[in-house]
Structures are given as C-alpha cells and as structure tokens.
Amino acid sequence: MSAIILFTAVSIAQLLLAVAMLIASVRIFVGPRAQDRIISLDTLYINAMLLLVTFGIGTGRTVYFEAALVIGLLGFVATLALAKFLMRGEVIE
What we know:
Layout: H1 2-30, H2 34-59, H3 63-88
Helix pairs in contact: 1-2, 2-3
C-alpha cells in the first residue's frame, strides 16, 4: 500500500515540476527585462534539480542525487555571475 502511495506522489510531483519548468522556460523567452529572465533561469534550474531528486526517490539510485547536487552548484554560480554582469557590466575584474 505504501509503495503505491509513494509511486503516485512521486509521479504527481514529477508532472507538476515538468509543468513548472515549462512555465519558467516560457518566461525566459518572453520576459520583458533581463532580471526577469535571470529569475526564471534560477527557477528553471531549481525545478530541474527537484525533478532529478524525485527521479532518485522513484528509482532508488544515487546518481540522480549527485546530478542534482551538481546542477544546484552550477546554477548558483551562474546566477551570481549573471547578477554581477547586470550590476557592473563585467564578470571578471
């Protein structure tokens, strides 16, 4: 019984995260300002990270958790670099 509930919950979470990624992707292309695009890119990588975590929960493999960690680290650094570029116009001083 608990395996059926877990499978259903993970499936619903994956579906909702995929919809959230689609909405964030639309916002990246439609966003009126660069700040909106950066925030939607941040949302997109967080949703991708969470989607990988739900895949890991569903399958029981640890490789998904490691990939989610890498996406989280790279996304954080990318967000900082883009924010610095918007504020100063250069990334490396």
